[in-house]
Every structure is written in structure tokens, then in C-alpha cells.
Specification:
single chain; 144 residues; alpha+beta; endopeptidase fold (from Nostoc punctiforme); five-stranded antiparallel β-sheet; 31% helix
Length: 144
């Protein structure tokens, strides 16, 4: 099957297929998209259920608080940061504990961050402050 070199909205790769094969190809793609969306929705529903009941994970708390779906990483220490400076609403990564720790930046005033977190004190939510130049801070993450 030869596909056109330039695909435009009016020229789809299936245009060169006989009508029956074209319909089968469209049905197959539709089924694949449906299954992908169904899986994504189920995953999202599962995450929301887990997030709403689990204050014993700083990772799940940070996702819930920010609405950011973090990449699969396992432990908090494995999150690859993408910001060097804090921003309100960003996730702050620290080296606190063997697993690392994530929190959410609520406010920045001068050289002080106010962060919301969970599981800094086991299975408890809390708010505390850190200096921006605190040596425990390893970076920040924001969805781009």
C-alpha cells in the first residue's frame, strides 16, 4: 500500500485503499483509540480513588494537590526536576529520607518557601517553611 507523500486534511493515508479495507482500517483505529481512552480513564479513576484515601505518600499527595500526573518514578528521589528556581504551584523535591520527599510550593516570600506536604510526619498532611537555599532542596518540577 502506498501512502501519499504529503498528508493533508483532505488526503488521508487510507484514501488509496479499497472501500471495504478503508472502513476496516477506520474501525480498527477507532477501536484502538477507544481502548486507549478507556484505559486512561480507568487509570485516572484509580489514581483519584487512591489519592483521596492515601496521605501516607508524598508523591500521591503532590499529584493530588497540583493536578499534575507525575511520570512513573517509584520513590520521590527518582523524580527528574525541570526547574532550578521555585514557582508557586510547583513541586519541590528534597533529599529528606532514604526515599526522598515531594511537597508543593504554596507561597514564596523573600527567601522563604511555604510548602504543603504529606508524609513528612508519617501519614499526616502539613504545612511548613523552608529557606530557598536550604541544602535539602534538590530542585523543582512543573508540568510543561
Amino acid at each position: 500500500m502506498a501512502f501519499p507523500k504529503k498528508i493533508t486534511s483532505s488526503t488521508l493515508p487510507f484514501d488509496s485503499l479499497p472501500k471495504a479495507e478503508y472502513l476496516e482500517a477506520n474501525i480498527e483505529i477507532s477501536n484502538q483509540l477507544y481502548e486507549k481512552r478507556k484505559t486512561q480513564k480507568k487509570t485516572q479513576e484509580t489514581k483519584q480513588t487512591v489519592k483521596s484515601f492515601n496521605s501516607c505518600s508524598c508523591v500521591i499527595y503532590a499529584e493530588w494537590k497540583t493536578g499534575i500526573d507525575l511520570p512513573q518514578m517509584g520513590l520521590a528521589k527518582n523524580l527528574k526536576t525541570n526547574l532550578d528556581w521555585p514557582m508557586v504551584g510547583a513541586i519541590v523535591k528534597t533529599n529528606e529520607s532514604y526515599a526522598g520527599h515531594l511537597a508543593v510550593v504554596l507561597a514564596i516570600k523573600g527567601n522563604v518557601l511555604t510548602i504543603a506536604e504529606s508524609n513528612y510526619i508519617p501519614c499526616k498532611e502539613g504545612v511548613r517553611q523552608l529557606n530557598i537555599d536550604d541544602g535539602r532542596i534538590q530542585g523543582y518540577y512543573e508540568l510543561r
